[in-house]
Amino acid sequence: MSVATINPHEAAHFGALAADWWDPHGSSAMLHRLNPVRLSYIRAQIDAHWHGDARERQPLTGKRALDVGCGAGLLAEPLARLGAAVTGVDAAPENIAAARSHAAGQGLAISYHAGELAALPPATFDLVTSMEVVEHVADPSAFVAELAARLAPGGLMILSTPNRTALSKLLLVEAAERVGAVPRGTHDWDRFLKPEELTDLLEGAGLEAIDRTGLSPSPARGFKLGGSEALNYLIAARWRG
Asked: Which residues contact residue 233 at a Cβ distance below 8 angstroms, ignoring those fewer than 6 apart?
């Protein structure tokens, strides 16, 4: 029997933000600023993993992608535009309703599901992504195992999450919530994972980390890849062996 990974409190918190998820100046403004940086990393890893051409507009044509903790589709929609057949899963039904509505308005055919990842019909995916989610689940080990169970042979997994450091506690939790950069109650610092802890979870699920990079603030661009991992990091993984 699969272990439940959804934290009901977390699902309710994010579901309450569904109505203005797509407002770049609303409660999800931070995600809107993060998304282009995440996408640049994902695209680079896609090209490296499948030996693609960076000039190709739809490098995921013919591939299946799964975005777990998809919210209202902020990453799922760009993945669809990159050519993938995309499935999005989120714990909050309100987010899935917003995601379906927005995708329809964009003319994108994305398959969205609310609830546990384990409840999805049996299928595997060439690309599995989960951005800023593992720190919100009830059981990170079981969650990573569920992600791995959905990764096809030869597939690529990309995760991002805050690091558990003194700096992240100061800036991501205390300062960001105090000034309203993120809604209060969004982050529980004690649930943040250090890179070596997430790497251990991936290895425990039979995967190997193949790349990792920091995601940090940039005065010029909002956020940038590379440099310090003290606040946030992205990690790419594949099947071991």
From this structure: 160, 161, 163, 195, 212, 213, 214, 215
